[in-house]
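=== RUN LOG ===
request id: a7f3
mode: sequence -> structure
chains: 1
length: 407
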Amino acid sequence: MNVRRSAAALAAIGVLAAAAPATAAPSPKVTVPAGLFGKGDPTYDGVWRQSLALLAQHTAGEKPADRAVTWLTGQQCADGGFASFRADTGTACGGKGAQADTNSTAAAVQALAALGGHDDVTGKAVTWLKAQQNKDGGWGYSPGGPSDANSTSVVVGALAAAGEKPAELRGKGKTPDEALTSFAVPCDQKGGGALAFQPDKKGKLEANADATAAGVLGALGKGFVVEPGKARDKAPACAADGKATPARLADNASAYLVGAVSGSGHLMSAMPGAENQPDFGNTADTVVALAADGWTKQAQAPYAWLEKNAAKWAEQSGPAAYAQLVLSAHAIGADPRDFGGTDLVRALDKLGPAPAKQAAAPEKKAAAPEKKATEKSGNSVWWIIGVGLVAGIGVGFLFSGRKKNRP
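=== RESULT ===
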């Protein structure tokens, strides 16, 4: 719920890789516009980080500033899609202009649908998203690109947020559930229960925690915002018997995630060639995924780890990172204003236009001094932000968090 959202890129080899450090300075060629959250170059994640920031503010009980919302709606292309960033909205999308992608569009839909009052914008965006569905039932990052678990899941969340019934959508053949099932690693194989981002060139499925967390939400028909629910008693386990259903897919994926965070309490970065380090963003996404599937007890350990270690990461990474943590707190019923001594909502508010209405903070004891991260700050990899097309395969370099955490 990113994304994804630091910037993580999906390279041509088919795995997520770091594209730039979270603390990268703004490009001298790009001016960060007024109304946009964060100070970093928005070229690859402007719409994504704005959407997550607005959604997190709304979820925390705040009314985002009008100019922040107007900036987002103003990014829409004439055909209904959203690109990662349009520096000049007077230039049409497509051709040599900005290229609309499913991830930016789906993130914007989720945010604007939650805020309400933007049916004209979300309606056009939903129509655009439906038109991009592939024959296998899924979505790729770019129109016409091969389906992947992350893009399919974030689009499903957007359609559900807009009042659609994505499970019934088979625009060109199969349904989204069928697409997600095709990415699931069988229980009797290495990484059983997990989802792959995409099959490799030989059709092999390799477990990917980022895609798995996204896939849980997609299978359940849920978006970035998950309401706290009643905890399930029995721990999840990967099971292959009986009829394959979206609920079974979600449970199997949850079982993989529980195993992945057991012991350490966090996921590790899967970026090729990167330093072996914790992945804060995907750990936050795992908390949301487990809570969405009712495994609230199992989500407590990774959330506790985030409380101890993620404040510095969010400070370095920017608005989408703070938004991810706010949404993870909301998913398990925790207070995002008391996150290990850090007020996540206040920290997010400082990175953009002041909200039109700030929710009153609940009374609590004086907060302890802010704790420093005890682990190195890792790059987040979840919901996806586009960077550009990979030649020959039509898959965009993807930025996350999910997709997506630029300052």
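=== NOTES ===
The first strand starts at residue 7 and ends at 10.
Strands lie at 7-10, 16-20, 82-83, 100-101, 267-268, 278-279, 385-390, 395-399.
=== END ===
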